[in-house]
Design a protein that fits this description.
The protein is of the alpha+beta class and about 120 residues long. The chain has four helices and four strands, in the order βαβαααββ. The two termini are about 15 Å apart.
Length: about 120
């Protein structure tokens, strides 16, 4: 399937991390989502119900970032991917990248991210 919806740089504040300080002070997280699905019908009808509403997906991602803390961004990415699969069964493939640019590491880095890819079963 070649049809794709991408949402990049969804920003929200969360309290995820291994260290207690991350769970107390929190930080900004950014998420990129790629959804593979058949957009043939939507490309003809011009009706939002024939596609995935990206405003809803964005809200879902923000809710997960701002929601219950997890230790690992891998877990957060997996949680987002599973919610998308559950809410949008027409999605054949989802890729979720969680960026944590202020991760507490000893070297200066531009970004640290984890990507989770899930296929429809």
């Amino acid at each position: 399937m070649a049809d794709l919806i991408e949402i990049k740089g969804i920003k929200a504040f969360g309290y995820h991390g291994v260290f207690e300080s991350e769970r107390v002070t929190g930080q900004d997280f950014y998420v990129d989502v790629s959804l593979e699905l058949d957009l043939t019908r939507a490309s003809v009808t011009d009706v939002v119900t024939d596609t995935v509403n990206y405003a809803e997906v964005t809200d879902l991602v923000v809710a997960e970032i701002a929601g219950d803390p997890v230790s690992l961004i891998e877990k957060l990415a997996g949680r987002i991917a599973e919610r998308i699969k559950l809410n949008y069964p027409q999605v054949a493939f989802v890729s979720v990248t969680v960026h944590k640019p202020q991760a507490p590491v000893s070297a200066q880095v531009k970004d640290i991210s984890a990507t989770i890819k899930r296929w429809k079963r």
